[in-house]
# Entry
Amino acid sequence: MNLTSERIFDLLLPGLNNVTGRIRYYSFYCWFFDWYASQVRTTSRSKQNNYLRRAEFLLSLVAAHKELSGVPGITKALSIYAESDEIIDLTKGTQEGSKSEGSYWKNPRGVLGQYYISSIKQMGILGDQGDKEGLFVRTDFQHETKISGKQLADAFGLNISNTSHIFAKAIENNVVTKTELELLSSEFNMLNIPNDSEEQQLLWQLFSGVDRPKEKDETYFRKDTIKLLLSNVDVIDSETKYDQLNVPFSIYNNGWNMDYSTSQKLWYYFIVEQFWSVSSTGCLDAFLKILDEQSKNNWIDEIELVDHIISKVMELFQKDGFDEESDLFFESTFTQESIQELVLLSKNEQSPYIKIQYALLAIQKLVIENSASNAELLEISNKFKIHTPSSFIVSYYDFKSRQDLTIKEFVRYFLTRNVINRHHFVALRKLNATQNSAKFYREDGMIRLVDHFMYDYSSPPRIHTLVDFMRDLSIIDTDSTALTQKGQEHLKMLAE
# Structure
């Protein structure tokens, strides 16, 4: 994913990421650290981490007992459950006292440390104990609209009141029986939040509330995105797999609107950057294929290669009735296809020369269509410090200053500056940081292929997570993409 898109995600959907797969872990961790503080009462980081890993592995054993998937550590849990008799030693899964390699979770900080802690801290429900970084406590405060870790801990506790003592005993003794796993299998099922419970309601309030509770400036981009998601989900075929790009696609297809909310404008901005990124990367992909074909695994003259590509692409424009020597590239759009259609055509095209043409047509249309939006997008981008030197929003102004370039002149400029030189610059910068990402090498006017690569849209992984969260909260149906009755009620409240 390009950096601009990632920054937009950080802004729009704080408190979750592409691996925070189950929303109930947010309330579970609050309960766990509440229990730990009241019952274990030690400030040892290592002991807290040992207990945490026992608890996480125990949750995966509960899932293994019921043959459930979608819980972190389930692969190791299923294996140990199958090979164990009635009594299961938790150290078989945690490998406590030895290296975590081969345990239920390779990262010694557990699932929380690797996947959840940064997002959970953003939500203001867990934090470090004073200046002891890595020693976690649930938060406790009173606020009219913000949710504390103590509230979630208490709500989770209400839903496990019949079996919490069994879970706690297993953590303390480092052992559990299969009989006890059966008793735990309902209340400690991380895939099921009791419907209409206080825990369910507080988790909804947490994610539909203020973006970053600890910050002074209050924004509600996540809440607005949930509203956009639920509105979009309910109008598509309930049997169709949800496309994570539906929200930004639908916003862009409706055209730029000054009355859009800031969240809508940010999603518009996201898909503009994606169109730009995929089109530009498609040109690089095509360039590498041509380099491979023409060089036959040897060095080749770079200028001759560029001239060859331009000649072939110009033939395509000529066939479409354009004069590459006199027609200006940005004078008017050359095709009726939408940008989305052109990007798809470019992605699927096998001929590298036609791939480049489709990508160029998409970029041309992107520049022309966003003459009205770019100034405000730049203003938003500056306000939230989003864009980078390679962003479309920067290239737009470069292209606007070159309105007098003919088709042939622009193609040469773009291919040289935005494809070849840009990749070379990025590869050199990464090489200085000991990362070799170069797809070609250049030396004394010669160029040689190094490797090919795969490319596509950066599907919003947090949208996927958000859909899963809404399913866990019984807002989106678990077997389809349709809203439940509860989901329709929540959408109505968000619209008010």
Notes: Residues 78 and 313 are 56 Å apart (CA to CA).
